[in-house]
């Protein structure tokens, strides 16, 4: 073990922050760390919207499902997959650009996620806390309008950043044997591993809530796969210029 590995294995989502503001130099250092992430073909297909206007922060908190920490954190970022900048650059260089390809959507989304995770690691290394906000995709059209996002750009998720005012337990992860396979995908024995993990998570939730929450990992997955999750995203992405050709 070394400090970097220990840091990566100790991530917690922070949803309560002190009123202390992140110094600008530290904030920008974290963003630069994000830029150091791997990027497909050096495309760098991302843009971050740093939302500082209090009214916009409050509106984003509402659009993301009423999550108060979107407004209360020191800083709030909206990470956008951006194929506008690279395709326009290629066009200016003389390319007959084709837009809306599925691979472009994947590249932009993956680039954005990799960059955001670098920022998360940098922030935690400096004693900051964070929480990803996937609720941004609950109302992506309204978020896009609020932030004046152009075509070929879409909001992937948000991130709250600030100094933690809580110290939650690290949430358990699946057993390594269930997610690490050699040579081929083999799931013999996974059912037993998942059953054991479900009991681990039951204990975690009981401890975290003082016994008021009695559920497992498998049980909490049920709502995700028994209804169409964010069905508006397909049409929204098409309207954004991600036609998935």
From TrEMBL:
All residue ranges annotated as the Nitroreductase domain in the record: 9-163
Keyword Mitochondrion: no
Coiled-coil residue spans: none
A GO term for molecular function: FMN reductase (NADPH) activity
EC number: 1.5.1.38
The entry's keywords: Flavoprotein, FMN, NADP, Oxidoreductase
Family statement drawn from the similarity comment of this UniProt entry: Belongs to the flavin oxidoreductase frp family.
NCBIfam families in UniProt: PRK10765.1 (NF008033)
Name of this protein: Oxygen-insensitive NADPH nitroreductase
Species: Marinobacter halodurans
Gene name tied to this protein: nfsA
């Amino acid at each position: 073990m070394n400090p970097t590995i220990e840091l990566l294995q100790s991530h917690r989502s922070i949803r309560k922050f002190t009123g202390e503001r992140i110094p600008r130099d530290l904030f920008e250092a974290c963003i630069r760390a994000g830029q150091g992430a791997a990027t497909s073909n050096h495309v760098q297909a991302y843009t971050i919207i740093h939302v500082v206007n209090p009214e916009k922060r409050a509106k984003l908190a509402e659009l993301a499902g009423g999550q108060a920490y979107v407004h209360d954190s020191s800083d709030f970022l909206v990470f956008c997959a951006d194929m506008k900048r690279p395709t326009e650059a290629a066009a200016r260089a003389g390319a007959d650009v084709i837009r809306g390809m599925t691979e472009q959507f994947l590249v932009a989304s993956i680039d954005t996620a990799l960059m955001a995770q670098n920022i998360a690691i940098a922030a935690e290394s400096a004693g900051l806390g964070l929480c990803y906000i996937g609720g941004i995709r609950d109302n992506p059209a309204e978020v896009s309008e609020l932030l004046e996002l152009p075509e070929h750009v879409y909001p992937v998720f948000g991130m709250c950043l600030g100094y933690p005012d809580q110290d939650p337990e690290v949430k358990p992860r699946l057993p390594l044997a269930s997610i690490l396979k050699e040579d081929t995908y083999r799931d013999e024995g996974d059912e037993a591993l998942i059953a054991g993990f479900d009991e681990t998570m039951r204990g975690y939730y009981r401890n975290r809530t003082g016994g008021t929450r009695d559920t497992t990992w498998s049980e909490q997955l049920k709502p995700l796969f028994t209804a169409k999750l964010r069905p508006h995203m397909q049409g929204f992405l098409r309207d954004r210029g991600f036609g998935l050709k």
